[in-house]
Amino acid sequence: xxxxxxxxxxxxxxxxxxxxxGVTESYVNLSVAVQLAELLRDAGYEVKLYRxxxxxxxxxxxxxxxxxxxxxxxxxxxxxxxxIHTNSSPNPAANGFEAYIxxxxxxxxxxxxxIVKSFVARLGSKDNGVKxxxxxxxxxxxxxxxxxxxxxxxxxxxxxxxxSPAWQTxxxxxxxxxIYNYVKP
Length: 185
Fold this sequence. Notes:
Layout: E1 4-9, E2 19-20, E3 23-24, H1 25-42, E4 46-49, H2 62-76, E5 80-87, E6 97-101, H3 109-123, E7 127-132, H4 136-139, E8 145-152, H5 156-162, H6 165-182
Parallel strand pairs: 1-4, 1-5, 5-8, 6-7
Antiparallel strand pairs: 2-3, 6-8
Helix pairs in contact: 1-6, 3-6
């Protein structure tokens, strides 16, 4: 039986996520998530996307929507949950790639570390490491779950990358390699 990976493109619908430097987070997240799902399927993983369009499955109300994302992954019986996001900061110099898990030392940490290592090596992003966070999609899921922040759209240089279709493809490939290096289909 194939490993089941739930891929969550963060935000969507009426929630664009962070916006800055001509970049809208929900669209970057969606592009990378859809490409990641395709790479995973081609490699033999079983994949479910939370959304494959900007509004599919997105519920009104942030709390209800976040709970729905976790509920769908739990009910599907996912082995792993990957949530794709784009960061923002009041400091335009902030940059880099990071991964969040619910608690350091949990079953998600080695997967998160594998993804960070692959992403940083392939895209040359600053390594901001793996951090713990009390995010709803990490707290409410039953499987090892990782939330990825691809870069800072508030950083003018990273915003150019985040908005580039070629860079989005490279990001999906780097995340895929990090997953594949840790867990085979």
